[in-house]
From TrEMBL:
GO molecular function: D-glucose:sodium symporter activity
Repeat in keyword set: no
Keywords: Membrane, Transmembrane, Transmembrane helix
Protein name: Sodium transporter
UniProt source species: Chryseobacterium formosense
Principal cellular location given in the protein's record: membrane
Amino acid sequence: MGNLATIDIVIFLVYFVVVTGYGIWIYNRKKSTSTGSKDYFLAEGSLTWWAIGASLIASNISAEQFIGMSGEGFFVGIAVAAYEWIAAIALIIIAVWFIPIYLKNKIYTMPQFLETRYNKSVSLIMAVFWLFLYVIVNLTSILYLGALAIDTLLGGDNLHIIMIGLLLMALLIGLGGMKVIGYTDVIQVAVLIIGGFATVYMALQIVDQRINGAAVGNAFAGFQTLMNEAPQHFKLMLDKPTTTTTTLAMPENLSVQKYVVLPGLAMYFAGQWIVNLNYWGCNQYITQRALGADLKTARTGILFAGFLKLFMPIIVMLPGIAAYVLYTKGHLPGFNGVKDGAYSAILGFLPSGLKGLAVAALTAAIVASLAGKVNSISTIFTLDIYKKYLKADATEIQMVRTGRWAIIVAMFVALAFTWTDVLGIGGEGGFTFIQKYTGFISPGVFAMFLLGMFWKRTTGTAALVGVLLGFLLAIFFNSFAVDIFGKETLLYTAFTYEKLENGVVHTITEIPFLINMGWSFFITVAVMVMISLAGPKVNPKVFAIDTTMFKVDNRTLVLIVVTLLLLTALYVRFW
């Protein structure tokens, strides 16, 4: 994979100038209107529904999707699309039932939700925890995977320079506040989609040329070739392996590794819903885009994002399957078979010009996610820690200034952790790394939010116990359950398999982490209910709920129905 040609560099520079120039124009146009903290952190009343929807997608589709999900497409296939397609349903649930509660009760941050509904202790604990998660897990993985992909495409040996460049671009946008992020995300997502689809189209043409010998590749023929050559990669539901212990010499060893990541139908009754509902509904990084809007605008924007999610697997997953077929047929001689390198391997085939567009799309996804993430970090730190515990009398200007310093510090910390891949993100596999380690806190957090919203008796004590218990249960199922209860129980089935890493064979025994999340959640909810039953019948801090706010107008209903019909068709076709 050689360096970029002149035309590629020109295309990338045009992207950079357009995004930067537009961001500066938005900043200068809006700063005379309002300079308050809510305007800076939430873009209060400024974002349109299409800007909210585009910003949600731009923030979500980042390095872990382009690189990590393409890698899982290479390894597992279309089954990984469940994360994207179930997200479409999750966004419908968020838009109809969650967002009205946030807006009705004037919630601006997730820790504020916890303080309003429960108490300050729960709020502070989770504020610190979210800051840790966003910086150490999310920010680092986005930066490392993105820089690694671009570095691979450029021929290697520039990883650290690329990391610094990505951070500087994100810093330029992030310091402008949510308004600048939201509106530049519209351009980012346009570049992302155009570049992503162009890459997929060319990848399918290459498959037709290399596998079928076509002089001029046909994308539709290439897609049919993928389905013919790798039919197992086009199954949404993975079958449960018939054996629970395998070795490298056994063909079932690979099937076990796939099932541990995506445990077939079982994950739809467990962790898959928790992953999506917690991510889209209880996550400052995501909900922040809608919290400054009115209900109609916020709801439409979220549903628009849900509709777009149906098409994301085409961009982020198909290149991985194309890489798998080309690799197994010997047409990727420079590729070592490590799944997180699959997307970069495909980009190496692209001609001059299109390669620059693909790099711009990848950069757009990375920069948008980095900017959005650090804005959420600064929002939580400033509004929920600095203002409440460090300087209660802080002025609006001081809060904005503090938020900007929080962005700079978060970026330096992320750079320090990714400089030598201290966390081992590359070895774990990017997409799995994020889902697995986020999954340690998701069960308790989602239980706390769900019961806090919709059950009047949930107490602050139950919430505190719930978030801690959910975390401890996730660790227990991940690290200790098999040693204590064995591999086969009524709750789970654990699998033992061998994995070759850097020439060393490792024997691993684990329960599928999505199953772990499911049981952690259900047990946590049960304990929280029992604790709350000992409290008052109606918690005095219960939220105000007006059932009329859950009603949707006809236009919204049509968008929901169309999304569900398309999703149903996809599952029927690829079940």
